[in-house]
Amino acid sequence: MDEDLLPIGGFARIGRLSVKQLRHYADLGLLVPAYVDEHTGYRYYRPEQAKDALAIGLLRSLDVPLAVIAQVLADRPGALRGVHERLEAELARRRSTLVALERVMADGLPSASVTVVTEPARRVAVTTATASDPSDVGRATSAAATRLRTASPAAVRELIGLFPLDLGEPVTVTVALVSEEPVAGADLDVLPGGRFATATHVGPYTQVGLTAHALLTWCAERRHPVRGPLREAYVSDPATTPPDRLITHLLIPLEEQ
Length: 257
Prior knowledge:
By secondary structure, the chain is α+β, with helices and mostly antiparallel strands. It has 3 domains: 6-73, Multidrug-efflux Transporter Regulator, Chain: A, Domain 2 (Orthogonal Bundle), CATH 1.10.1660.10; 80-105; 115-253, Regulatory factor, effector binding domain (Multidrug-efflux Transporter 1 Regulator Bmrr, Chain A). It has 7 helices and 11 strands. An 8-stranded antiparallel beta sheet has the order 4-9-11-10-6-7-5-8. The N and C termini lie far apart (82 Å).
């Protein structure tokens, strides 16, 4: 055995990792010992492997998954790009949550003017997208809406988002385009009519949840049985309308009492 090899305890100290971590990374093939004694099972490392050990510790502190760390250690170009994009998206969601919280702190729990309307059944072209969790719903909705806008050349497009009342993981998001004609990449369907409790949200899509809360509260206080999905009828074009002026009609189907 090479005399320069370090036992796992000594290597753990210079590599700033625990013995348990080193064993785990060895099992994953991420940081394999230079030598394992076949009789005792003791593990030994070369001093130059400390560079990889320290790099693993640094990247884990930056919330980089182990699978991506393996790519970094293998000098794969662009290995960290996906992690950067994920963290940016998470930061954007956190900022949006902070804005909504500040609004609640300033104005109290949300309220809205609610009315009951009767909606006719409508023929629609629908497409779906999957959100990994409730915080990913905005991205999934935007992706589905973009597909419909791209496929429909009409200047006026009436888009309606459909969301389950109970958001699990993952979340299936449906976006419907009111249309009598087929739309490429979408399925034709009929959006049922009936009685709906409705309220209007003015502001960013990221704060629609505040108005939805007020709408559900109104229904609960009046003991209106509700059923899904929650509808969001998008009145404004986000490409030409400032976020604080976006108009969205929220509708919740009411069950007959």
